Amino acid sequence: MSLDTKVEELKAILQPILDQHNFYLVDLEFIHERGDWYLRVYADKQGGINIDDCAVISEEYGEKLDELNPIDPAYYLEVSSPGAERPLKNDESLSNNVDDYVHVSLYQKQDGQKAFEGTMTEVTDTKITLIVKVKNLKKQVEISRDNIAKIRLAIEF
Question: What is the pTM of this model?
Answer without folding.
Answer: 0.69
